[in-house]
Amino acid sequence: MFVGIDHGTTAMRFAGGGRVFKIPRSDAVSFRLSDLSHLTEGEEIEGFAITYSMGDNFSEITPIEHLTNRGLVSRDGAGEHTGGGTRVFDIIKESGIPTVAIPGLHRGSHTDPRFKVYSHQASPEKIGLAYEVVSHLGSTCIVSDISSNTVTLLMKDNRIIGGFDACIFAPGWVHGALDLDAIRAIDAGKITANDAFLHAGVRDTLPDSDRQSALAMFAAMECASLRLLAPNAPVALCGSRALSVSDEIKQLLCCDLLVLDEWTAAKGLSRIAEDIFSKNIRNILGIPVRL
Fold it and tell me: How sure is the predictor about 174, in pLDDT bands with cuts at 50, 70 and 90?
């Protein structure tokens, strides 16, 4: 079997062999390879596809042992650091089981250069998300992952064209872009930029009555803007908040939606591992595979 590992905001999610398993990131600090017996049920693991943090210092799908600094420019930046993802990464690397690491989307990636006005477009698990969605909707589609963050990607002709990360456009439940108030507070030394990011979602910026509608509106706006480059692209929603806002997004976009669950990224990563190790595929949505 082939296992995909989604380094999510709140949990590490594993998928393979038609089964799924997750560990809260705070609990993953004590992760052992034997924990995957819940997933494998005695089957042999033939390969992993793993994601870790931003994945921003490499741009090709790469054997885990070839990465420098676990594939990061720096551990500093937007997000919460618990140590759970690091533990899982190191245990998988030490296992000796063939493992590819998936890069994030950034200025070194093979995306439309116009998106590179921003240094970061998406974290690595969104590649797995996109791969799974393409298997459902076809080679041209849009996916919006709505949870703690909101991240939206466009795939066209089986290639990732680009996308909007959480710190750029649409807010998520917890995280969001830094607005004028946040910039002033940072400049005044009242808060760090990372703390501002961690409190810029609708949970902390809006009253309860407005949160769901704001999530829906901004996610729909991201999807609509990406449709400028692919007008008839079907749309999928994923993430823990997707179902709760799907009806409103459907009305705003005036189209049917595919709504998938929290396991979508891990399932797509499992599919990537199988296609690389078993089917010898050497290009994943426009991202070269270097083995």
Answer: very high
Give the start-to-end residue ranges of the domains of the chain: 2-180+199-286
Please name the residue that has the structure tokens 């449709």: 227
Q: What's residue 80's pLDDT?
A: 58
CA 243 to chain CA mean position, Å: 18
Answer whether 55's CB lies under 8 Å from 123's CB. Answer: yes
Please, are residues 255 and 220 in contact by the beta-carbon 8 Å criterion? no
Residue found under tokens 């989307």: 105
> Stretch 102-113: mean pLDDT, rounded?
96
Q: Read out DSSP for 199-227?
A: T-SHHHHS-HHHHHHHHHHHHHHHHHHHT
In whole angstroms, give the CA distance from residue 45 to residue 36: 10
**Encoded tokens for 191:** 């808060």
* Nearest-angstrom CA–CA distance, 132 and 267: 7
| CATH, domain 2-180+199-286, list 3.30.420.40, 3.40.50.2300, 3.40.190.10, 1.20.1560.10 | 3.30.420.40
Closest CA to 101 of 109, 111, 93: 93
Which pair of tokens denotes residue 79?
A: 């997000």
pLDDT in tens, 108-120: 999 999 999 999 9
